[in-house]
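Researcher: Here's a chain I'd like modeled. Treat it as a single chain, no partners, no ligands.
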Amino acid sequence: QAFVICLSRRRDKRAMAQEHQEYIQTKVNPTLANLVTQVLLERPEVPVPFMIRWLASQQSGQGASVAPPQKSEPSETDRLRNEIQALQQEVRQLEVQLGKDTDSLPLGTSPGATNEN
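Model: Modeled as a single isolated chain. Structure tokens:
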């Protein structure tokens, strides 16, 4: 009797494993494949928020392969990176105009400051 129960459990486990495998192949893998493709195409600096937004955009399609909206403008990270580069360039230009290396100034002073005591 224990042997029959053991065989029955094995069949149940195999059937459950088969159901899991089919579910993964039909429901999960297509979504993950599309997600990975979009992450590789976009290459976001911080991928998890991008992935969450992408997955949320897929929910409205209920599993249909709906392409996420294309990136029409740079991300905030890209904008900040560009702003930093522009500011660094501006600092270099100002240093050239002053003809001074700001690193050689005494601590607490700024270029063009006068010492009137």
